[in-house]
Amino acid sequence: MTGYPIAVGNAEVELRFKNSRFIGTVGSAVSVDEAKAFIASVRARYPDASHHCYAFAAGYGATVTHGMSDDGEPSGTAGRPMLAVVQGGGIGDVVVVATRYFGGTKLGTGGLVKAYTETAQAALAAVPVELKIETVLLRVELAYDSFAPCRKRMEDLGADIEDEQFADVVQLRVRVAIEQMQELRTALVDMTSGRAQVDQIE
To answer: In whole angstroms, what is the distance from residue 65 CA to residue 46 CA?
Structure first.
């Protein structure tokens, strides 16, 4: 079953470049609001740092929202290279913050790009990743005599029955991977000679 990799949990790494201390913190962000909250939490943890540059990808593929900030560093030396790392890593729902404590030696434009790129790479490499499967929620209505065989077929297709109601007919709320939805719908209709009702509700 296909899906896309997402960050789960948090991770933190520390690197040094010419006496400047760079702390890379990475976490999960399924929305822009979650990304902003994570960035704010890192700022609060290191309030005396020189900069808190960041990049995030909330979502994945066609529905992704990207964000980035140089946070006072020279334009294009922090947020953009960090975002390039995030995009190149192919991970969705992720936010990376690079916190810098200035060490007294200027790094120059090239040095900053290198430092922020490597900090983002190290942070992303440290965070746990899992596969996220996009799902839909269906309402299924079946006659009682069709319930047992249809239930087994749904389970065979990896569907999760979240709720069952037994009235004049059996009413189910079923969560299934998007790519399995049409196969499930076709199977239930075929098994019940067209009597099954299958409607997407989410």
So the answer is: 26
